[in-house]
Structure formats: structure tokens, C-alpha cells
Specification:
Strands 5-4-1-6 form a 4-stranded parallel β-sheet, with helices on both faces. A two-stranded antiparallel sheet has the order 2-3. The protein is α/β, with parallel strands linked by helices. The protein is built from 3 helices and 8 strands, in the order βββαβαβαβββ. Helix content is 24%, strand content 24%.
Length: 131
């Protein structure tokens, strides 16, 4: 059994402005494709089968780009902050019904570059680093 992965991709990305005024950070182009596509490809190669995106600012754009995850062989669910951004803990709390009791958390600006399977929850966070 692999653990689901919560991807936190709901912030305003103010440090990336003006690039992120009209496009969420996870959709910024990295060598010809949105960052989130690289992230999902990496997770799929690591055996992840279920992802829950916690999105806020411009989250609909991310959902339109990613869809249901079938392109990567991953089941994708969506948890939206709503009108008020909830922050990290609030976003995860809202997504709990979609995640279950055990899950991994990955920031929307990280790519996992390790061969550690997602079932190894204790050592998995060390496998993720900033891209």
C-alpha cells in the first residue's frame, strides 16, 4: 500500500511576482512544461497512485491543467481553500476527508528525486528537495 500525497499549492507566491500575478507558481514553465507536470511525473515514477491537491489562489487553473491525473496514472482529488486562504495547517485539515489518517505532504514547489517508495514514510521526506 502506498500513502496518498497531499500537494500544497495554494499560496499567493508573492516572491515570484510579477510572474505569478495571473498564473499560479505550479503552472510556471520549466523547460517547456508546467512545473506541476514534472512533479506528477516524478511522483508517478516513485509509485505514487493518489494525490490530493490543496489549492487556493488561482487553483482552478491548476485543476484545469492537471485534471483527474490520468495522464500520469495517478488519481487526483482536489481540496479548495475557498474565498479565504487557509494556510498550510488549514488546507491540510480541510483535505483530511480526502487523505485519510496517514499521508505524505509535499510542497507544490518540490520534486522528489529519490528511489524511496512512498510506503517508506519515515525516510521519504529526506528524498524531496527544492528543484
Amino acid at each position: 500500500m502506498t500513502l496518498p500525497v497531499a500537494i500544497l499549492a495554494g499560496g499567493l507566491a508573492t516572491r515570484m511576482r510579477p510572474l505569478t500575478e495571473r498564473i499560479p507558481k505550479s503552472l510556471l514553465d520549466i523547460q517547456g512544461e508546467p512545473f506541476v507536470f514534472r512533479q506528477l511525473s516524478c511522483l508517478a515514477r516513485r509509485g505514487v497512485t493518489r494525490v490530493v491537491f490543496c489549492v487556493g489562489f488561482l487553483g482552478e487553473m491548476v485543476r484545469e491543467a492537471v485534471g483527474d491525473g490520468s495522464r500520469w496514472g495517478i488519481e487526483v482529488a482536489w481540496s479548495f481553500d475557498g474565498e479565504k486562504l487557509l494556510g498550510t495547517a488549514g488546507a491540510l485539515r480541510k483535505a483530511l476527508p480526502l487523505l485519510g489518517r496517514q499521508f505524505l505532504v509535499l510542497y507544490g514547489t518540490r520534486i522528489c528525486r529519490s528511489t524511496i517508495p512512498p510506503s517508506s514514510a519515515r525516510s521519504w521526506p529526506r528524498a524531496c528537495r527544492a528543484s
